[in-house]
């Protein structure tokens, strides 16, 4: 059974400061670091001793700080991949969330939602995010490790789950999963049929 753990980073400074995240390089808070330690223990408890494991992470500070204790606990190699970054919000990043809210143009109910411009210069469309995250998932799956941990961000994690389920990027226009900071989603592929399963979505039972 192949198993992937998709982890969304826990509380970071942009959360408590009310700032837009995206590529803004915020750090984990003290509470976030505590949650990262608990995430590491929860993931380790789900992986049999001696099985091969790798840890992949977005290269932003808050995800690195989440992935590092996981990699130490599992004695695993940590691979940083910019393709796992959160959706870019362009000029809004690091600004107050209210600044973004005042300028944000929501996508239409129908039509081309993938290439919809949200009104923020320099921001990624949902389609651009998908065409960055899907190849990142392909790079991860190219490895033969039995267990893989992917530390990423909320919106990027939604697209990773779509890639795992082989939903084409064109189908990501309406896609949403309810994910929270510090949650763990478990993906599994059996060795006989090679069916892919979303076994657990956003488990937060390990968090304080």
Any overview of this molecule?
By secondary structure, the chain is an alpha/beta fold. The protein has a single domain, classed as Phosphoglycerate mutase-like (Rossmann fold, 3-Layer(aba) Sandwich). The protein is built from six helices and six strands, in the order E-H-H-E-H-E-H-H-E-H-E-E. It has helices spanning 13-17, 30-45, 61-74, 97-103, 126-141, 154-164, and strands at 2-8, 53-57, 78-80, 147-152, 184-189, 196-203. Strands 3-2-4-1-5-6 form a six-stranded mixed beta sheet, with helices on both faces. Helix 2 (30-45) runs parallel beside helix 3 and helix 5 crosses helix 6 (154-164). The two termini are 30 Å apart. The model has no long low-confidence stretch (mean pLDDT 97).
Looking across the biggest beta sheet, what order are the strands in?
Answer: 3-2-4-1-5-6
CATH architecture: 3-Layer(aba) Sandwich
Biggest pleated sheet: 6 strands, mixed
Q: Class by helix and strand content?
A: alpha/beta
CATH superfamily: Phosphoglycerate mutase-like
Poorly predicted regions: none
Strand content: 15-25%
| Broad CATH class | Alpha Beta
Oligomer: single chain
Q: Termini separation (Å)? A: 30 Å
CATH topological fold name: Rossmann fold
Average pLDDT? 97
Radius of gyration: 17 Å
Tally of separate domains: 1
> Outline, from the CA principal axes?
globular
State the helical fraction. Answer: 25-40%
Order of H and E elements: EHHEHEHHEHEE
Beta-strand segment tally: 6
The DSSP helix count reads: 6
């Amino acid at each position: 059974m192949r198993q992937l753990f998709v982890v969304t980073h826990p509380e970071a400074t942009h959360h408590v400061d009310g700032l837009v995240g995206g590529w803004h390089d915020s750090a984990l808070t003290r509470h976030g670091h505590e949650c990262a330690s608990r995430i590491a223990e929860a993931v380790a408890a789900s992986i049999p001793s001696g099985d091969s494991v790798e840890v992949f992470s977005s290269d932003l500070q808050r995800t690195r700080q989440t992935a590092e204790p996981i990699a130490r606990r599992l004695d695993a190699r940590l691979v940083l991949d910019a393709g796992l970054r959160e959706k870019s919000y362009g000029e809004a990043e690091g600004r107050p969330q209210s600044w973004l809210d005042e300028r944000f143009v929501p996508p239409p109910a129908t039509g081309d939602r993938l290439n919809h411009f949200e009104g923020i210069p320099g921001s990624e469309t949902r389609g651009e995010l998908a065409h960055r995250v899907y190849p990142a998932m392909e790079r991860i799956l190219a490895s033969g490790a039995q267990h893989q941990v992917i530390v990423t961000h909320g919106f990027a994690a939604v697209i990773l789950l779509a890639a795992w389920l082989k939903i084409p990027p064109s189908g990501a226009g309406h896609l949403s999963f309810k994910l929270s900071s510090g949650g763990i989603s478990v993906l599994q592929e059996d060795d006989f049929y090679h069916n892919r399963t979303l076994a657990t979505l956003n488990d937060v039972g390990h968090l304080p």
